[in-house]
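Box 3.1 A note on notation
Throughout this textbook, protein chains are presented in two layers. The first layer is the amino acid sequence; the second is a C-alpha cell string describing backbone geometry. Keep the layers aligned when reading.
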Amino acid sequence: MKGVILGISGGIAVYKAVEILRRLSERGIRVQVVMTAHARKFVAPLTFQALSGQRVITSLFDPQNGSEVEHIHLRREYDLLLVAPATANILGKFAQGIADDFLSTLYLAWNKELIVAPAMNAEMWRHAAVRRNLELLRERGVRVVDPEEGFLACGDVGAGRLADPVRIADQALQALEKTGDLCGKTVLVNAGPTVEAIDPVRFLSNRSSGKMGYALAAEAARRGARVILVSGPVSLAPPAGVEKIPVVSAAEMGEAMDRLFPDADIAILAAAVCDYAPKQAAPQKIKNREQPELRLELKATRDILAGLGKKKTRQLLVGFAAETENLMDNARRKLAEKNVDLLVANDVSSRDSGLESDYNRVTLLFRDGSSREIPRMPKSEVARAILDAVVSLAAAPQGGPAER
C-alpha cells in the first residue's frame, strides 16, 4: 500500500486538509498526519486521527513516538511528503534548513517526492523572501501546487488561497503513480557548462547554469534510479542521493561520459559543452600591455552526443538542442544525425526561460516523427515531463514508438 505523510502547518486553511486526507484515504492511500504547533490551534489532532486511523504526530519529543528515530522511520515507510497548507513560515524553514519541530526536521531527512501547497495572504505570497524560498525549493525538485486567486480570510482579494483540495490530492496521487518507475536503472546525466582555458586566469565558456541537468538528475533519483551526474563548474549543490563527478573542460567531460556510458541504462546529455577550445593554453597569464591585440586559434571540441550515439547498444539516449534560430529544423537534423532516442529542442534566445533561468519551455522530438510541446514552467516540472517520456520510451518495444 502506498503511503503519504500529510504535513499540516498553521493557517486558516488547515480545515481544508481534512478534505485532502479524506480523498487520499478513499483511494486506498495510507496517510500519516504530522501537525505543527500552530496548525493545532485551528483544528484538533483528534479530527485527523479519526479520519486517518493513525495517531497524529505533533512533537519531536512525544513519548509515544517509540524507540525508533521517528522522522527517519517515516522516511523509510512512506512514499510522498505532502505539506498542505504550507505557510510562509514552513517554506522558509525548508528553504533555509531550519529544523526546530517535527515537520521541518522530517524535511531535512526526506529524500523522496515532496509536494507543497502554499497558502497565505496575497502580500505575503508576493514578498521577495517568499518568492526566493520557493525558487530554492523548486531548484531542489520540490513540486509546488500554486495557490489560487480569490477572497482571502483577511478580507483581501488576490493570490494566496490554498488550491482546491481535490487538485492537491490528485497531484499527490499522480506523483505516487510515478514513484519507483526507474528503480533498478542507472541514469547518467551531464549538466552545466564546460570551461576551456586560455591561460591560468582566462577561459572560454557559456551561460549555462546547470539547473536543467540538475533538475533531471533530482527527478531521476526520486523515481528510484541510481543517478550519476557529470557536472561542469556550477554553483548548485548536487541533488540528494546523486553521485556527482565534477569536470572542467569538454575533454574531461567526454572522458567521463565514455567511461560511464557502458554501464548506463539511460543517458541524458543536458550539458552545454563548449564547441570550441583554444588550440593551446598559455602557461602564464597573458599580459594585455605586452599584447594589445590577441588572436586566439580555436579547435573544435569533441561531439560527445554523436560519439555516444555511435556506441550505444541497449542504452536509451536523450540529447538537447539549444538553438537561437530555426529551432525545429536544427533539432530534427540533430535527432537523425546523432542517433538519439529523444531530443529536447530548447530555444535559448528567450528572455523568460532557458539559459540561467529557473524556467524552460521545450519541444520533445521522438524518432517516430512525433513531437510534444512543453510550455514554459519551472525546470523541475520540465524535468518531470522529460522523465515521463523517457519512462514511456523505456517501456516500449525495442525500436517502437512510446505510448503517449
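Residues 379-395 form the longest helix (17 residues). The mean pLDDT is 90.
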